[in-house]
Amino acid sequence: MAGPAELAGVLVVGTTERLGAVAWPDQTVWPGYGAGYGSAPLVLPVVALVVLRRQAARRIPSAR
Questions:
Q1: Which sequence spans correspond to the domains of the chain?
Q2: Dist CA 39 CA 24 (whole Å)
Q3: Rounded CA separation 14/36 (Å)
Q4: Residues 40-58 pLDDT 10s
Q5: CA distance 5 to 62
């Protein structure tokens, strides 16, 4: 499950960077919640989780 792990990483690194607890020497994908990359690192895991949840809901037969 890479989606939840990546989302957690983005949130943890982005939050610690905003709080000033960590100084990142180089620009990476996660600081600033991926702002330097169009927020794709924050948005893509959320989109993937929504798609996976919808697909799983379709596979479960409805009880009648």
A1: 2-59
A2: 17
A3: 12
A4: 888 888 898 899 888 888 8
A5: 30
